[in-house]
Amino acid sequence: MNSLDWAVLIGYFGVMVAIGVWSHQRVDDVGDFFTAGGRMPWWLSGISHHMSGYSAVMFTGYAGIAYQYGITSYVTWSFPIAIGIAIGARLFAGRLNRLRSRLHVASPLEYLKSRYNLPTQQALAWSGVLLKIVDVGAKWAAIATLLSVFTGLTLNQGILITGAVTGVYCTVGGLWADALTELGQFVIQLLAGVAMLVTVLAELGGVSALWTVWDRLPDGHAQPTVGPYTLTFLLAYLFIKTFEYSGGMWNQAQRYMATRSAREARRSARLSAVLWFVWPAVLFFPMWVAPLLVKAEKPDASDSYALLTERLLPHGLLGLVIVGFFSHTMAMCSSDANAISAVFTRDIAPALPKLGARARGWSHRAGLLAARLSTVAFLALSMAIATQVNSPTFKDIITVVIKWVAGLVGPISIPFLLGMVPRFRRSGPTAALVSWAAGLFAFWLTNYGLAGVQLQIQIVAPVATSLVLYVLIGYLKPEDTPERDAVLARINPDDDDDGDGGGPGGAGAAARPSTSCSRSART
User: Fold this and answer.
1) CA 204, CA 500: separation in Å to the nearest integer?
2) Which residue windows does the record flag with biased composition (Polar residues) (predicted)?
3) In this structure, are residues 176 and 308 in contact, taking their beta carbons and an 8 Å threshold?
4) Distance CA 495, CA 398 (A)
5) Highest mean pLDDT range out of 72-81, 99-108, 157-166, 330-339?
6) C-alpha angle 378/410/234, rounded to 5°?
7) What tens digit of pLDDT does each residue of 309-346 get?
8) Cα separation, 271 vs 364, whole angstroms
9) How far apart are CA 497 and CA 477, in angstroms?
10) Residues 54 and 218: beta-carbon distance below 8 Å
């Protein structure tokens, strides 16, 4: 990098901070901070949903997979995510929006206290927060790895810089800042991705390289499933990502909650699905053909894309692509920080022995201060974890992302998402807690208790265990009650009244106390 590249990077950081400061003016209470007051346009929600779904891990871990195995990086990663989001648009997006507009909650998990009970809510909240600290730590490590290639900064220095800038804008501006910076980041990534594609095609002889280059690549590069990424892995990943990207990752649920109506939430989901289907293919092509242009130095080839950009791009444009790396990571990490802050301040803090009474009585100002402080705390913890991501416990970045996140998000998301669907009304607290605990045990058993377990089994076993037990226990030990049925009735109105968000269930309703969810359940 030279001075021009640094100017582009520093300018990007400055714009992100400026957006956060501007968004601060739109945040009056926790409803604005966590769900944008229910006023976010569907197209902005869709772009934000897409951008908050992946990070610089794509340019490190998945770039290594693309370098070694070819198009399976797309077929077994972004393609099933696109399909999963499209399925979720029908099943979950509208229901998640009604959590805010009809139950008047600000956190995705607030409704669980009325749908199940307090222990269930706390189990899912605490385990999800701990998982996200590890997950976001992997994202910080990924972007710091790229930064070290280009600038020579150490891993810890890179983590500190990116974490500090992200902390400023997402702490002061809340979800509005997240969404608006993600829109800007999407535009930057669009320019950088297209520039990289055009440069690579020029290096390989022109547009015809799109269909003529495959014979020159290593064997298997054009196979949709290869190596450890088999058809079984693809199906397992589709199964998991349907839950994860439809709201199992709480930051994704917030995007649906932030729109004006259930109808707009579904439109938001469909836009995100289209973007996931098209855009990653554009980003992946340079990674697929990288073996013809550079030689990776790391065993997992996670440095291949960084080496490619250094070789091909002129200064200034190189800085823009580096900004593109940052844009994805900062989008995901800031959105996760906002979601975790919502869960802590709205779900965990009110249930703590000493803090609970005070938290339940927080004023708008005190609640907003708690939200910002918990956001800072989450970012600091995840940054500390990032410094250990390559330790023997976590092994490497891609292990954390594929195994830990994909394996553990299922047991958390099954009771959360299926709890909104009337078909599963018989599944109550017992089904939720047993399925959650058994899923976590299945993760430990397949990853650490048994040797030689295939990757696809490690990934699918936790969520499959949770799903089977959640349904089976609900059938054998039904726990549906009039109060729980009332909660479901509010999330699933017969007339599907998807208004513009005005009135009692409209914009700003998320700012109301979470106890209104309990009142709704008793009406």
Assistant:
1) 51
2) 513-523
3) no
4) 45
5) 72-81
6) 115
7) 888 877 767 777 777 666 666 666 777 777 778 888 88
8) 34
9) 33
10) no
pLDDT of 516 over the 50 cut: no
One-letter amino acid at 283 equals L
Asked if 474 and 427 touch (Cβ cutoff 8 Å), the reply is yes
Element (H, E) at 166: helix 155-203
Residue in this structure with the two tokens 């797309």, named with its chain if needed: 74
DSSP H or E run through 271: helix 262-288
Q: Which of 292, 258, 288 is nearest to 32 (CA)?
A: 258
Asked whether 289 and 213 are in contact (CB, 8 A), the reply is yes
- Name the nearest CA neighbour of 380 among 179, 136, 207, 194: 136
Which tokens sit at 260?
Answer: 């004006």
CA distance 450 to 498: 49
Distance CA(244)–CA(53), nearest Å, equals 10
Ordered structural domains, the chain, with CATH: 3-389 (1.20.1730.10)
pLDDT tens track for 349-372: 888 887 777 777 777 777 778 877
pLDDT in tens, 454-498: 877 887 889 899 999 999 999 999 999 999 999 999 998 755 455
Distances (CA, A) of 146 to 164, 200, 287: 17, 19, 15
Alpha helices in 313-405 (DSSP H): 317-343, 356-360, 364-386, 397-399
